[in-house]
Specification:
Layout lengths: L10 E2 L7 H4 L13 E9 L18 H13 L2 E2 L5 E5 L4 E3 L3 H9 L5 E8 L5 H5 L2 H14 L8 H15 L5 H11 L1 H4 L3 H11 L14 H9 L7 E3 L6 E7 L4 H17 L4 E7 L4 H34 L15 E5 L10 E2 L2
Parallel strand pairs: 4-6, 8-9, 9-10
Antiparallel strand pairs: 1-3, 2-6, 4-5, 7-8, 10-11
Helix pairs in contact: 2-3, 5-6, 6-7, 6-9, 11-12
Amino acid sequence: MRWAITQKMHKMTITQSTTVDEMVRLDPGDGPSYPLLEFDSFGEKHPRLINVTKANYPRKSERCKGNVEVLTASTAEGWAVKCWPFSIFRSESEEYLFDHRHLLESVNINNYVKVPVAYYKRRTTSHPILDSLSDDSVMTLSGLYANAIDGTVNAVLNDFSYVIKLVIEKENLPLTNDVVNLLLDVSGARTRYSNRKSFNTIINAVLNTTKTSTKVFNNTEEEIKAFIKERPFFGYNNESKVDGVQVRFKTIDERQKHRYASDVLKYGFNAFENNGRVRVLAASSATCEIQIENDRKTLIETMEEQFKQPMNFFQKSADKVSNGLINLPSWSVYDLPLEIWAVPQIEGEEMEFRLL
């Protein structure tokens, strides 16, 4: 049985007269701390009256038969009072077991008359996405979290990618790095895996850039024209009607990252030479969220790379001539009189925002 506290194991036979205090010799803090649920109270319940949520069958890798056999043999000897009770989510109208499914099967095989339970309720996280999740998704993620931190091998890489994708599709969430990482945080993945390689494996399995998403917009020429027309702060190749700053528009695409980065840098250098300032509005033509995110990130990274190359060249040349006595100014792309703004294109983005 999982969640055994590191103390001497004590087992007891549960009868109708056994009290909750006798079955549960634990404090609330001894159990798992679920990111999306908070402990409410301990209680008792007949195991055959416990409803198992249908939202928590996420693990493709689990071996049910072996788990049940081991737990059946263990519970035949009695209930371990230092093990965490059955975890039940309780809403205003319903109760569902979201963890310990195999343990429930085992105590039923052994004809337990009652078992201890730990009741949970929704935790307010103050994060709009997490607090808007359905109860089913909360139980799915919490069930995975329990298996991720219990020290067993019940949850593996494929389980995390499967569950995260399942929740994103069920909740109709945008398929972005931010959303995937947010759900990984509350699924226990960071406890189970500490290396970046494992996280990238999960993220890459979830993100799919081959399908056209219904959660993107402003990725057609007509939409961009309408967007700019409504915002005189921006423009194509003129001056802003708001403050007179030179304005440009640039379509970005990771496949032509060097060309587009060079174009935007040229805008910045021209503005510097003319003692002016330039504002660039950038939009991706991609049709999925993650590719739009990548296009934005790649534009800035490529600009920084292109800017540093000549700076490094001139510094090395100066070092040769002066034996290291000449130090050129430490400039970066952020020193240019250049603004880069992103068009809102992913569901949930309402306003343009600065990239640089």
